[in-house]
Amino acid sequence: MDRSPRATLAAPHGDTLSSRASWLIILILASAPLLSTAPVAHAEPSPVPCAYFFYGQGCPHCANVEPKLHDLVSTGQADIHWMEVYQNRTNALLLNTLLETYQVPASARGVPIVFVGDSYLSGDRAILSGIESALASTAGCPAFAADPPMQAPQNAQTTLTLSRMSLATVIGAAIVDSINPCAIAVLLILLGALLAAGDRRKATQAGIAFTLSIYIAYFLFGLSLLSAIRISGLALWFHQTIGILAIIIGLANIKDYVWYGGGGFVIEIPRRWRPLLKKMLGSVTSPLGAFAMGFLVCLFELPCTGGPYIFILGLLAQDATRAAAIPILLLYNVFFVLPLVLITALIHLGYTNVEQASEWKERNIRILHLVGGLIMLALGIIVLTGLA
C-alpha cells in the first residue's frame, strides 16, 4: 500500500510544531534579561535587639557580666553598645541623664547597668538572669541611640573635671581639713618631745619630715580610696550622697562650737586614743623616726580629718580620670599640711614655742570648729544645688 501521501501530509504538521517550539524558546531567551531585572520581594530581616551597657574599667561586677554580653553579640542575638563611665566623662553624663529618664532609684544607681528598650537591668545578677528575656521583648535600640556616638577628646577629662570642681571647692575643703585641731595637736606633741631634749635643729628637721610623710600618706590614701570607690561600683551612688555628707560634717563641727563634746563625741582624735598616741610620739628621737611616725599617725587622724577629704574624693569619683585626680589631690594636700609647715617655721625662727602654740590651739579650738563647720555646710549646699 502506498503510504507516501500520508507521510507527505504528516511532514508539514511536524515542521509546524517544531517551528512553534523554536519561536517559544527564542521568546523565552529574549525575555530572560527582563525577567532577571524584575524586582523580587524579599522579607525584611527583623532588627537585632539592642542594649546599652554602662560599665567601669576595673569594676569586678561589670567583669562578671561581660562574657555573657560578648556571647550574645557573637551569636547575633543582640547589638550591645559598650559605654565606659570611669574614664569617659561624656558617657558618665549620659548615664546620669538616663538614670533620671528611666527613674532609676538611688539604690540601683551604679554600674554595671543595661538599658534595653524602655527597661533597665542594674547589677550583675539582674543582668545575667534577665538580659535574654529583656532583649526578646524589644527590637532596635532605645530612642537616645539615634544620636551619634559621643566620644570625649583625649585631654577633655582633665579640663572638664577642673571646670566642674572649682579651685575654691578644693581649697575650701582642704582648709577645713588643715585647721582641724587633730593634725596641729599631733605636731605640737612631736615637737614638744624633741625640743625637750634641747635640740632645736633636730626638732625642725623632724617637723619637716613629719609634715612630708603626712603629705605623702594622705596623697596615697586618697588615690587608693578613689580606686576602691570605682572598683566597688559605688562611684555614682557616692557622688549623689557627697553633698549630704558635707552637711553632716559641717553640722557636727558647728555642734562642737556650740556644745563642745556634747552628744558623746567631738570631731577630733578620740580621747581614749590620745595617751597611746602621745606615748608613741614621745618615743621619736630622729627625723627618720618622725617621718615613719607620720604614716602611722594618719590612722589616728582619719576619724577627725577624713571627712573633707572624702568629700573631695566623692566629687572626683564619678567624673575624673586618675590623671585628672592626681593634680587635684596634690593641690589639696599642699593646703592640708600648710599649718604644719607654718607652725614648724615659727617655732624654728623663735616667734613662738610649743607651749604658746598649744595654748593658742586650746583657746581657739571652738572657733576652728565653727569656721570648718560653716565652710563644709556651704560646700554641701553648693553640691546639692548643682553649683559645684
- Helix count, DSSP H or I runs of 4 or more residues: 14
Alpha carbon gyration radius: 37 Å
- List low-confidence stretches: 1-14, 23-45, 145-164
Tell me the fraction of residues in β-strands, as a range.
5-15%
User: Can you list the strand order of the major beta sheet?
Assistant: 2-1-3-4
Instruction: Give the termini distance in whole angstroms.
Output: 121 Å
- DSSP helix fraction: 55-70%
Oligomer: single chain
Q: Estimate the global geometry from the Cα principal axes.
A: elongated
Structural class: mainly alpha
Please tell me the total number of domains: 2
Q: What brief labels describe this structure?
A:
5% strand, elongated, four-stranded mixed sheet, mainly alpha, disordered N terminus, 4 strands, Glutaredoxin, 2 domains, 388 residues
Helices and strands in order:
Elements: H1 4-36, E1 50-55, H2 60-74, E2 79-84, H3 89-101, E3 113-116, E4 119-122, H4 124-136, H5 156-164, H6 167-178, H7 181-195, H8 200-231, H9 235-258, H10 274-282, H11 287-319, H12 322-349, H13 354-363, H14 365-384
Parallel strand pairs: 1-2
Antiparallel strand pairs: 1-3, 3-4
Describe the structure.
- The chain has two domains: 50-152, Glutaredoxin (3-Layer(aba) Sandwich); 157-384, no CATH class.
- Strand 1, helix 2 and strand 2 (79-84) form a beta-alpha-beta unit.
- The model is unreliable at 1-14, 23-45 and 145-164 (pLDDT under 50).
- With 388 residues, it is mainly alpha-helical.
- It starts with a helix and ends with a helix.
- Strands 2-1-3-4 form a four-stranded mixed sheet, with helices on both faces.
- It contains 14 helices and four strands.
